[in-house]
Inverse folding.
């Protein structure tokens, strides 16, 4: 995953939360306002419908009152009874002018139309109306009927003289004038539709009229619904007028939403300002959080790189301030631990120091381990030390120990102790590896190489050259912490340690630099090291002889003389003393400075010409 700064995550959380709040608020306000606006328009449409109904009732009342007065007029009844058409027509025209009716009709006592102010009106269109039948039964009636394709609101009253002699009918046309009158009062667009055609409307938009004609049948009476045309929307309420006639009252939905749009703009503007302010404040807050964290990360990386004198300065009275204090305390603890580690590394091996730092305690006691023990010693050290001041002696010894410790450490050995000028190192405790004997021999060869380099430096400094002997043995030993509860040291003890020390002492006697026992050689399979057989030796204090070898090198080619030497040693061990004398004599010609050859020649000189029956080639040492 890509790295995302914590500061951006904090800022993102702030902005996301603000965005959710703003969007939710805008949505709630929008929904609430839309619902309220729709309710207000519905109320206005209901008012317009009520106005329309009231208008029809008012006209009906006016017609009823005027017709009732005329029907009771004695002269009119007399003219109607005598069928004086001139008087009747004159009276109807006067009444039409007075009540501003669009049409007036007269029927006889059978309900047949006899006179009309409206031309070309079929008689049966009126005669079949129930209101005429009701009027003949001396009841007043009203209805809305189509005449010439236009709806008329008509009222019928009986003419009594004293019996019913006819019916007087008057009506108003429901047309654009009615629609405009309603619009003037309610500010609402009004349309009248009969069948599939709008016959009267205040709508000026042709698109609006076409859309209304197309969608009109889908409207349910009393249920407002949105009507879309072009880029505009109206909320429309259908109000039935007659079985085949409906009034459609509509108000602009877009105009009603104009305040909401302004509110949306205001909320958006305020939200944008809030968003920007939140971004600024969020960056500041996130910075106050992430700056200390970044400081801690940088300091932690320094600690990881080993720079333990790292300190952070976080002046905050919160959790981050506490974290900074805890970090400084941790760094201080690491510095103390490192000091302790340095002291431990100088006192004990690195492996033991790590175990102490890990567990914090030392268990006294021990366990038997197979270990390889290395002893090294500076030859003629006593003579050397007599010529040096204490300061020079310690300085040169420390320089020597430092150089010798390098190969031991690189081969994972543990320097057990320094005994004067001697070094004791072990492999196999406290940690063991399968190739411990191999590592020990490599360390010994490395010590010789380091000694060569050191002697070059000493020669330049006019210091005496150093010569050392190294002895190695592999065997069982007891490993553990030896000492008291208050002071203890990890070491190994046992016969393997003593024998390694004795073997190191033999190096001077045989004139070799590195001597190993057969146990070390046998534990190093593969023929990687080149050895020379030296002897079977009973070291002082031991009855059982030990076979010892000189370690010449690793991965080296055998020199020609070494094969003759091995034959000579083999003859000696087999008791073929005469053959051994001949072979060693030849070797003396080429290996004059070889101490081992000299020792065998010296030993053979004291022996008879032939080996005795109880021949034992082992040599017993009387000195350590």
């Amino acid at each position: 995953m890509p790295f995302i700064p914590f500061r951006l995550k904090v800022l993102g959380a702030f902005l996301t939360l603000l965005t959710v709040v703003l969007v939710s608020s805008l949505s709630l306000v929008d929904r609430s306002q839309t619902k309220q606006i729709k309710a207000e328009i519905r109320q206005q449409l209901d008012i317009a419908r009520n106005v329309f109904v009231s208008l029809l009732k008012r006209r009906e009342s006016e017609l009823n009152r005027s017709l009732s007065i005329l029907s009771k007029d004695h002269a009119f009844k007399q003219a109607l009874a005598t069928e004086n058409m001139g008087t009747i027509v004159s009276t109807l025209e006067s009444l039409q002018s007075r009540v501003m009716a669009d049409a007036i009709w007269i029927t006889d006592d059978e309900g047949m139309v006899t006179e009309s102010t409206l031309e070309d009106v079929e008689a049966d269109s009126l005669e079949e109306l129930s209101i005429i039948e009701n009027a003949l039964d001396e009841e007043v009636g009203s209805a809305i009927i189509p005449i010439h394709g236009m709806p008329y609101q008509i009222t019928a009253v009986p003419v009594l003289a004293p019996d019913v002699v006819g019916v007087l009918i008057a009506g108003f046309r429901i047309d654009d004038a009615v629609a405009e009158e309603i619009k003037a009062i309610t500010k609402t667009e009004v349309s009248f539709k009969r069948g599939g055609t709008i016959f009267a409307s205040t709508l000026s938009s042709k698109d609006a009229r076409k859309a209304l004609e197309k969608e009109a049948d889908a409207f349910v009476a009393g249920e407002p619904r949105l009507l879309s045309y072009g880029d505009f929307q109206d909320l429309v309420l259908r109000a039935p007028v007659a079985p085949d006639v409906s009034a459609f009252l509509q108000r602009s939905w877009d105009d009603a939403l104009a305040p909401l749009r302004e509110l949306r703009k205001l909320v958006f503007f305020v939200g944008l300002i809030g968003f920007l302010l939140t971004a600024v404040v969020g960056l500041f807050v996130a910075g106050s959080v992430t700056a200390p964290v970044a400081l801690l990360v940088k300091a932690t990386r320094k600690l990881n790189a080993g720079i333990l004198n790292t300190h952070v300065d976080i002046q905050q009275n919160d959790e981050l301030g506490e974290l900074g204090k805890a970090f400084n305390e941790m760094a201080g603890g690491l510095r103390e631990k490192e000091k302790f580690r340095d002291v431990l590394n100088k006192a004990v091996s690195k492996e033991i120091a790590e175990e102490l730092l890990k567990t914090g305690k030392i268990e006294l006691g021990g366990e038997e381990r197979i270990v390889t023990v290395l002893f090294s010693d500076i030859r003629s050290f006593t003579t050397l030390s007599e010529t040096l001041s204490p300061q020079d002696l310690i300085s040169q010894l420390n320089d020597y120990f430092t150089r010798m410790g390098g190969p031991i450490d690189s081969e994972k050995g543990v320097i057990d102790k320094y005994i004067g000028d001697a070094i004791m190192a072990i492999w196999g405790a406290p940690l063991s590896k399968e190739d411990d004997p191999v590592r020990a021999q490599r360390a010994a060869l490395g010590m010789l190489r380091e000694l060569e380099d050191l002697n070059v430096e000493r020669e330049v400094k006019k210091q005496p050259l150093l010569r050392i002997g190294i002895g190695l043995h592999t065997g069982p030993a007891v490993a553990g912490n030896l000492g008291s509860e208050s002071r203890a040291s990890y070491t190994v003890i046992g016969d393997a340690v003593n024998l390694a020390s004795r073997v190191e002492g033999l190096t001077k006697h045989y004139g070799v630099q590195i001597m190993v026992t057969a146990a070390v050689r046998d534990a190093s399979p593969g023929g990687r090291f080149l050895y020379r057989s030296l002897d079977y030796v009973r070291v002082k204090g031991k009855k059982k002889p030990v076979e010892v070898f000189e370690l010449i090198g690793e991965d080296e080619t055998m020199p020609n003389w070494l094969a003759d030497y091995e034959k000579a040693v083999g003859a000696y061990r087999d008791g073929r003393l005469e053959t051994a004398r001949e072979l060693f004599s030849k070797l003396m010609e080429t290996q004059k400075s070889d101490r081992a050859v000299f020792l065998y020649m010296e030993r053979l000189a004291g022996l008879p010409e032939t080996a005795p029956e109880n021949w034992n080639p082992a040599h017993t040492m009387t000195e350590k």
Summary: The first strand starts at residue 103 and ends at 108. The two ends are 69 Å apart (CA to CA). The first helix runs from residue 6 to 71.
